[in-house]
Structure prediction request, 117 residues.
Amino acid sequence: MLGIAKGANAALMFFLELGVLASVGYWGFTLSAAWWIRLLAGVGAPALFIAAWALFGAGGGANATFPLTGLARAALEILWFGGGAVALYASGLVTPAVVFFAVFVVNAVLRIIWKQV
Prediction:
């Protein structure tokens, strides 16, 4: 039973990662600016987030170019998932931003308890 819960928590982490990309893209496309700035932000911001995750956090660090561990990894995750929540907040979606960050915190605590980090 615990194995199923751990697997579900790992799957939740993946969906949270996708949620960050969707949130940042949504933020970019909802800016009140010229269409080309919205396009640049809507595509460019997720691309920057993808690059940062690929370099430092992919696969729990196992697939990253420069894997981070310990406090550096914790800081990366807080900035990454916090960035998704801030993007939602900046888009005017306050409640989804709070829920998103709360789900991340629960996921992170469970990953620490279950030694999934």
Notes: The CA atoms of residues 17 and 95 lie 19 Å apart. DSSP finds four helices and no strands in the chain. The two ends are 20 Å apart (CA to CA).
